[in-house]
Specification:
Blueprint (H helix, E strand, L loop, with lengths): L4 E6 L5 H7 L2 H10 L1 E4 L13 E7 L5 H13 E7 L1 H5 L15 H9 L22 E3 L6 H12 L11 H7 L25 H4 L16 H10 L4 H9 L8
Parallel strand pairs: 1-2, 1-3, 3-4, 4-5
Bound molecules: iron/sulfur cluster (2 copies).
One iron/sulfur cluster binds next to helix 7.
Length: about 250
Amino acid sequence: MSKPTVGIFGLTGCAGDQLVILNCEDQLLDLVSLIDIRDFLMASSENNQDCQLDLALVEGAVLSNRDAETLRAIRKRSKLLVALGTCAVWGGVAAMNRGADRDADRDALLEEVYGDIGRGYDSTPAQALHEVVPVDFNITGCPIEKEHFLAAVASLLNGDLPLYPEYPVCTECRMRENNCLLIERGLLCCGPITVGGCDARCPDLRVPCVGCRGPAGDANAGSLVAVMEEMGFSRPQLAARLRTFAPGGVA
Ligand code: SF4
Ligand code: SF4
């Protein structure tokens, strides 16, 4: 049986998710024995940029017309398209300011940042992948967890779609028996409304969660926001914190 063909791509982002894949050192040999990675610029200078793919994993947000064209071309050549990391899933840090007045005059913004040469740069307000093409599923995280990538490949090889946590970071934090930074120390921790899967990495180190994985589907956002308000945090404060990584998830 032929191996599934795979492409791994980066749009505008920090390449951290692709690095996570390359850091799967103990599993890389098993991986390449099971899948046929045809197009992965970060890992190889020899790529087939035209072949059809069974699976495309795409990191980064869409921040230019060139990004959008690249993404549409990847979508056309792949049966499944996976958004890899918070930028691809939610727009990420680059989308933090989206919708603000500054987007109304992109040229002025570009000039402010790059000077005279900025006007006319190919630069568009940051978009998540699903705003440009249909996405089959998401692996969120800033960066993604290595185990989630490996689980996705294993599930897809079995013909299943992978399952990921829908519960909030708090669930994992309580399972680790941490003292609560929000309730007990009065710190603005986004764990109640951020999707788990990171094993509560930050609160485990006594650092409040900043919401890098995006919103939790299972969170009771209304009542949790009310709790946060009781703790003295305003909605704009909370929204500003959440916008850092997942502006598309902030109501
Ligand atoms: S420290 Fe943060 S993540 Fe942990 S239980 Fe409290 S609010 Fe939730
Ligand atoms: S605890 Fe929050 S900020 Fe830290 S890795 Fe997890 S989701 Fe990201």
